[in-house]
Amino acid sequence: QDSGALIVFVDENKSAFASGLKKGDLIVAANDNPIRDKESFVSFMSQKEHKEVLKLKIIRDSFTKEMEIIPAKFNKNLLNNNYFSYGGMVVENISDKKRENLKLPNYVSGVFVSEISDDSIAKKAGLQKSDIIVQIDDKEILNIDDFSKTINNQINQRVHIFRNGWGFIKLLQKEEKKSVFKQ
Q1: 129-148 pLDDT, tens per residue?
Q2: What's the pTM value of the predicted model, to 2 decimals?
């Protein structure tokens, strides 16, 4: 299965960690409801009561596993479309407060990399937490909407980033799936 909600960060002080969820797990079902992507998981979670037991079906290291979790209070910020995950990273819009904290010049626009998974394609490409993605291929990135429309499943994409006052170009390479047939 290739679709689901990828866990890119687990806070060690939260119930997800205590329940055994790990970075890199792919949530494919919740209470027997299929989970296609982050958005379907966020939508599902937004309808659940605080402290309600959830039965999750996940894929970890190519194995399917079921687990029960009692989630902490759901983060409603995930509903405001200020966050997006792809390739093992979470990016977010740059708020005025974040711009001020980063001392980011006004001429720099893009999305902020807030989390990155160690074994992700983003990490392998050389992206780092706190990078600002300003362009993908030939498309300028101003916000999450631009990012989500531009990033795609092509094998290679040039990602232009701003890091500590410098510009870099990284090649995001999605691994091709190889079929293995037994005879």
Answers
A1: 999 999 999 999 999 888 88
A2: 0.58
